[in-house]
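dumping the sequnces here before i forget
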Amino acid sequence: MARIECPECGHTEETTGLVTVCPECSTDLRNVMEEVGHRRGRMREIAHDDSMTTHEFIVRTKDLHKIYIMGEVEVPALRGVEINIRRGEYLSIMGPSGSGKSTLFNMVGGLDKPTKGTCFIEEVDMAQLDAFELAWLRCRKIGYIFQTFNLIPVMTALENVTLPMIFAGMSSDEMMDRGALLLDLVGLGDRLHHKPFELSGGQQQRVAVARALANNPAIVLADEPTGNLDLQTGKEIIDLLKELNEESGVTIISATHDLKMIDVSDRVVHIRDGEVERVENRADLDLDVGTLGSDEKPELDEGE
Amino acid sequence: MIKSELARKMYKSETDWGEVQRQVTLSWGQAGSIAYRNVTMRLGRALITAAGVVLGIAFLTSVWTANVAQEGIMEYEATSATAVAAEEAALAPGAEEAEAEERARAARQAWLVIMSLLVSAVGITNSMLMSVTERFREIGTMKCLGALDEFIVRLFLIESAVLGLLGSLLGALVGHGIMMLVYMIRQAGVAAMMDWGQMLIYLAIALAIGTVLSLVAAVPPAVRAARMPPAAALATEI
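..and the predicted 3d for all of it:
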């Protein structure tokens, strides 16, 4: 809680950061909140409607370094990565195993802290967020999809999808409706009460996609979403993600070394040895894809 | 595959964040229902975890039951013998020997109680620790979905308290029951000779020890796991 004063009409307001405009004269109070060190105010900035179009980049990293300590040895995983990710784009991070793409994924998703450098999400420095704000961010703004699906094994498909909604404080009825709708959306409308072990890999990944969308995130982060799937199922998941991206405008960031991803990506960031090797745009990619052939092309792994 | 009409409907509200009034939440009720599901769905695993508690507490209560029964029998024998006989016995040359034997017996019993406490502590700690460690990935996943550290701790708190309490209850019944059977066969009417107040106190202490040990064993690793960055918890291989 902080008491802030409206610079226009002098009205004072006790706020937890959820109110960002003056109730008297509708002046935007976010700058004032920032001045009194109200971090919640900045969190709301992420959430605020009109700010959704304020920043060109939804995610921005600056000189990102990550060093893992393995016993006595320091292993650099990221060495000064700078990427800017636009709102609504489908971005793939490509690179061989051990190139640092999963590490980058973790940094961007707020799952790990960088050793040096900063990662901004909607221009908010993630290192500045406390546990509450990070949880809020993970719960509502970011959806995660993993290579190993990571569904909760004791819960049904529906319970898995509704878990983030419980954290978001949604009412039980709304949760069930929305969960069923989301599962229907990913083509599992008839599998609501199946446990993960009763589902195929592709179906489990679809549940994970539905779960990632539970609270209408602005960003979906996918770490090798096709890594444990066969060619056809993998392609279905990619198509599903692409369709969601086009339909809803959700930003999709996917770490992968699956070349099928190139077909649908707006941009591809190539990572090698913890550095950005090159960034390819859609226009350049179409040419590359043409030379590789169509859907039937074999899956090529770069330097496994 | 994807129903586009539906997708549009679902995502109409994406920019609606300004209206959201709540931060992340998990009520005790919901935590309870998740913990309940965890126990019932993994019943086999939960039973193995609880078995560690059951065995430890059964051992402890059996030793205590034996103590109480033994004392009851001895007191009964002492009071039923006539005072004269007791005096005669005291004057007899074997009295000192009997006293020494009695002391040795007490020491042996104390040793048994300490051993059984240790065994239950180790057993309970081990099974609880394992049940947390094998779920690091799940903990990491929950954190990705927006769980606060305290949600994770809350889940394990409920789960271990329930497993600890039920396990100790079962263990106390089994340990006490078996020992009572043994003594009933050895000495008819032993139940009437026993100090039941003392026995109940012992049983209550055993329950408390089982439950507290379960919590002490499960909560610190759960706290540690909850504090890990999600990336680290997810990367754990069991």
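Chain B has one domain: 49-235.
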